[in-house]
């Protein structure tokens, strides 16, 4: 990315932070709170997600036969099925069916994907969106910024100004009630005048040809019932085997997207319908149309391929097709919450899953525009109702973007020179992706390396050439690494006298930058009668994976396993200080290592505070740890620590040690490893972090010691707060 490209992206993000950020943040917050409350009522939430995923896995596996079955069913009902190869093919068919007549539409992201409105209008049709948010965007001539709530970026005041300017009503519209009433009346007339109704479909059942539509306004029913021709547009992935399969999705889709136990309207339509058409002059809904059984009503189901069948054959993009378009990934994403889909989105789709959709249906160039906004924090994984590994999809697409469409680059070099091949990994990604090599070099020449890196000349060069923002403080390398310190010091607990024996994994940051937390971890474990070893294990692969350098991450994972395998083979536990590295062991290594190696490491690896909790629960004395003596602390948990459900262990240990703990309700610090260093994202990173600052500067928290478990969290808090934060294991050490 050139300097000019970075500057343009930074300006774009700054503009969205200023103009749309507040509305997006407030609305996603409401959706998230509703989701937490709603899913908490379910006794079988996880089993429902498992069931939903199983149905989607089966449906995508059997998709060709389900499409044949669905076609037979719809045609037996008197309808028509057309499977379109791509957007142009779909628009040609729909335009022929519409034939210039007036069209009313309910919300459909698939119709946005193929841009059917433009195609129909080019052929003489008048097209009206009847979903209130889509109607707002239609008259504003803007693209949706959210899969479920397309106008999430607009405030009520902005919508009122828009309506008053475009429609010039007798009395200015102000309140939500006035705006809604006006839109209902205006669109009601358009519905009565329309001849073709167009809908999408959340699901289509192969056994009965039933369309399941989940809406908040009921406009989909009106679009179908008021017209003689119904055109439903849906991606081929929307097909499920049977009506019975809808049950888990009905339970999950509203809860996951908007936090509703069930959305306002669940419509199950098995067209062509036989209920009478309503319409006429509007004085009587049944006044002058044919009230017969609807024999002349047409139904066309247009199923869109547009790259989906290729995605089905792609081992890494296939999971994208399990998506039920609920938007939970967007709502739970800190970056999306602050800039919305006009930054975190492509030609059609937005949010975490958008990378997979855009790469699959529009191509990698569209995905490349926003893919780096996914930091791989994994918060979306637990929120996805079908358990899609969204961060992995984003990583794989980033890897493919790095490689170029035809490139097959070797990422295993440790040098920091740019790749010569077109589409290769740029210098900045190589720098951040090979942080272990950089840290080793910085440590070898510390403190000189630190002094040079802090000079104005060095910072200016790094900003111009690498896009490392000069406002962000750089890490300071320690001359003696943790591994070197331990080799000199040795273990203080004899193996034969130890309660347990562990290998303490020295992540790159702990090994070369924050060595004191590593030393504290050693001392705390030894105080609890644990024999500790600190093997020279190297970078976990998290750094290159975040840059989309999958081959390098795999090489790192193999080296880490080789270094830790003697301990694992001997039945010893692996203790990890950095939560994102433990997440690598527990999640990403499944894709990077052979199954037996992944399983062995996952089963025997623990986060350090989780491990201390286990020791205390199994008889170790808390008295050997530092006494908190009521010290007031404010604690922020790392994203991946929460994803792995490890936060409770840290809180329990701190409270057992006598600390008075206040926890952060803010879900993300905004730093996300290298993300916060990048010049085009610096202001977004700080904007996300300010919410955490606000929480830690209240009357109750302003005087508390700030504590965080993650490296990124500690770096962000250190930059944004006057108080220097610390890792919880250092509190237990008491030094």
TrEMBL record:
Transmembrane portions of the chain: none
Disordered: region residues: 270-293
GO MF entry, a single one: 4 iron, 4 sulfur cluster binding
Domain 4Fe-4S ferredoxin-type: 366-393
Cited InterPro entries: 4Fe4S_Fe-S-bd, 4Fe4S_Fe_S_CS, FTHF_cligase-like_sf, Helical_ferredxn, LUD_dom, LutB/LldF, NagB/RpiA_transferase-like
Keyword Iron assigned: yes
Keywords: 4Fe-4S, Electron transport, Iron, Iron-sulfur, Metal-binding, Repeat, Transport
Pfam families: Fer4_8, LUD_dom
PANTHER family documented for this protein: LACTATE UTILIZATION PROTEIN B
Full protein name: LUD domain-containing protein
UniProt organism field: Halorubrum glutamatedens
């Amino acid at each position: 990315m050139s300097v000019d490209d970075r500057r343009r992206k930074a300006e774009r993000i700054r503009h969205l932070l200023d103009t749309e950020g507040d509305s997006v943040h407030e609305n996603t917050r409401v959706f998230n709170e509703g989701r937490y409350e709603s899913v908490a009522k379910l006794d079988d939430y996880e089993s429902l997600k498992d069931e939903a995923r199983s149905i989607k896995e089966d449906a995508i596996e059997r998709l060709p036969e389900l499409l044949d079955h669905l076609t037979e069913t719809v045609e037996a009902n008197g309808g028509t099925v057309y499977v379109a190869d791509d957007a142009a093919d779909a628009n040609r068919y729909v335009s022929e069916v519409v034939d210039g007549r007036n069209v009313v539409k309910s919300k459909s992201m698939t119709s946005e994907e193929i841009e059917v409105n433009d195609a129909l209008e080019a052929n003489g049709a008048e097209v009206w969106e009847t979903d209130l948010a889509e109607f707002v965007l239609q008259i504003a001539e803007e693209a949706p910024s959210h899969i479920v709530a397309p106008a999430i970026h607009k405030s009520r005041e902005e919508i009122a100004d828009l309506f008053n300017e475009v429609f010039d009503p007798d009395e200015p519209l102000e309140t939500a009630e006035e705006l809604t009433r006006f839109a209902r009346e205006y669109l009601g007339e358009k519905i009565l005048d329309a001849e073709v109704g167009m809908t999408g479909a959340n699901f289509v059942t192969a056994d009965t040809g039933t369309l399941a539509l989940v809406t908040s306004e009921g406009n989909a029913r009106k679009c179908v019932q008021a017209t003689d021709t119904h055109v439903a547009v849906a991606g081929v992935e929307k097909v499920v085997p049977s009506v019975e399969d809808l049950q888990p999705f009905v339970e999950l889709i509203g809860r996951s997207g908007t936090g509703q136990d069930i959305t306002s309207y669940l419509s199950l339509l098995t067209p062509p319908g036989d209920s009478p058409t309503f319409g006429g002059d509007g004085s009587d809904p049944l006044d002058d149309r044919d009230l017969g059984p609807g024999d002349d009503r047409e139904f066309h189901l247009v199923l869109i391929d547009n790259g989906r069948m290729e995605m089905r054959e792609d081992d890494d993009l296939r999971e994208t097709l399990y998506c039920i378009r609920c938007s939970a990934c967007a709502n739970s994403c800190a970056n999306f919450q602050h800039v919305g889909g006009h930054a975190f989105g492509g030609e059609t789709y937005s949010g975490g899953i958008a990378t997979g959709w855009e790469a699959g249906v529009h191509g990698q160039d569209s995905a490349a525009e926003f893919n780096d906004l996914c930091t791989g924090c994994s918060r979306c994984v637990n929120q996805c109702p079908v358990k899609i590994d969204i961060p992995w999809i984003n990583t794989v697409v980033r890897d493919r973007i790095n490689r170029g469409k035809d490139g097959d680059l070797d990422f295993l070099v440790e040098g920091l020179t740019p790749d010569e091949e077109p589409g290769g990994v740029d210098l900045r990604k190589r720098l951040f992706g090979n942080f272990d090599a950089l840290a080793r070099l910085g440590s070898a020449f510390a403190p000189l390396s630190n002094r040079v890196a802090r000079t104005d000349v060095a910072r200016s060069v790094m900003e111009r050439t690498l896009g490392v923002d000069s406002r962000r403080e750089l890490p300071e390398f320690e001359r003696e690494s943790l591994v070197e310190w331990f080799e000199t010091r040795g273990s203080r607990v004899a193996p034969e006298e130890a309660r347990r024996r562990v290998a303490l994994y020295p992540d790159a940051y702990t090994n070369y930058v924050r060595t004191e937390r590593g030393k504290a971890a050693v001392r705390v474990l030894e105080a609890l009668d644990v024999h500790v070893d600190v093997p020279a294990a190297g970078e976990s692969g998290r750094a290159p994976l975040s840059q989309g350098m999958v081959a390098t991450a795999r090489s790192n994972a193999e080296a880490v396993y080789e270094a830790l395998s003697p301990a694992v083979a001997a039945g010893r536990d692996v203790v990890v200080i950095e939560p994102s590295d433990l997440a690598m062991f527990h999640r990403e290594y499944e894709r990077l290592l052979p199954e037996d190696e992944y399983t062995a490491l996952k089963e025997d690896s623990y986060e350090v505070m989780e491990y201390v909790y286990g020791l205390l629960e199994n008889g170790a004395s808390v008295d050997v740890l530092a006494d908190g003596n009521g010290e007031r602390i404010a604690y922020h948990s790392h994203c991946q620590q929460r994803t792995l459900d490890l936060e409770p262990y840290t809180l329990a240990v701190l409270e057992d040690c006598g600390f008075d703990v206040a926890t952060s309700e803010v879900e993300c610090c905004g730093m996300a490893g290298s993300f916060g260093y990048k010049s085009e994202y610096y202001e977004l990173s700080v904007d996300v972090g300010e919410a955490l600052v606000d929480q830690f500067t209240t009357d109750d928290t302003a005087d508390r010691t700030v504590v965080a478990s993650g490296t990124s969290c500690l770096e962000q808090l250190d930059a944004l707060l006057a108080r220097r934060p610390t890792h919880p294991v250092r509190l237990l050490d008491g030094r």
